[in-house]
Amino acid sequence: MQNNNETTVNVLQELNQFVNDRIEGYKHAAEATKNPAHQSYYKDLVNESNMFSNEINRNISKYGGERQESTTAKGKIFRGWMDVKSAVTGSDEESIIEANLTGEEWAQKAYNDALDHRAELPESIVQMVEKQKQTSLTTCERLRQMKKTVD
């Protein structure tokens, strides 16, 4: 049976893989977009995601774990698929935004999975996860609004 520190570390390491996916996804989007405003927004989201990752990694270290720098296999496959799709069809703004929305939906699931362990996590960790989850939700809404303007 795991103690609470091990559970905390495991939950945070798994969550941080999704945050690292978010970083890579928005880097890719910033390079692919032709829209300067979108590019600026995606770069802001890379910076925000880096802050999230750093915050999570500080807590992983605090609870005795190793920093998590990798991404998920699912995220790597998705980014590869988007590269192939872009090569075949070109990268239009709508498909870039749609890919970002998919990534944020995966992030929401990852935050919810982390919060499923709420009873085993320190309150400060729960608050951090909830705060990041809310920020991701706000990003989802902004991306939906951006998608409406490019349709």
Automatic annotation (TrEMBL):
Entry-linked Pfam families: DUF2383
Domain of life: Bacteria
DUF2383 domain segment(s): 8-116
Xref: InterPro entries: CHP02284, DUF2383, Ferritin-like, Ferritin-like_SF, UCP029477
SUPFAM superfamilies xrefs: Ferritin-like
Protein name: PA2169 family four-helix-bundle protein
Native source organism of the sequence: Pontibacter toksunensis
Source lineage: Bacteria, Pseudomonadati, Bacteroidota, Cytophagia, Cytophagales
